[in-house]
């Protein structure tokens, strides 16, 4: 399980965009977004750098938690 701090998330659209961005790279990825904590948990075979890149491409600021 990888955990990331993601700034700029505020709504269901954000959740969907982040989930789809990660799953575009790994369709089997399990993505859990917590808007109030501003965290994203990802269970995936992708390296952390690939997950960060996918989320950044959606316009969010990301750092490892």
UniProtKB/TrEMBL annotation:
Superkingdom assignment: Bacteria
Listed PROSITE patterns: HMA_1, HMA_2
Entry keyword Hydrolase: no
Domain (HMA) ranges: 1-63
GO molecular function terms listed in the Swiss-Prot or TrEMBL record: metal ion binding
SUPFAM superfamilies assigned: HMA, heavy metal-associated domain
Name of the protein described by the UniProt record: Copper resistance protein CopZ
Any matching Pfam family: HMA
Keywords assigned: Metal-binding
Keyword Cell wall biogenesis/degradation applies: no
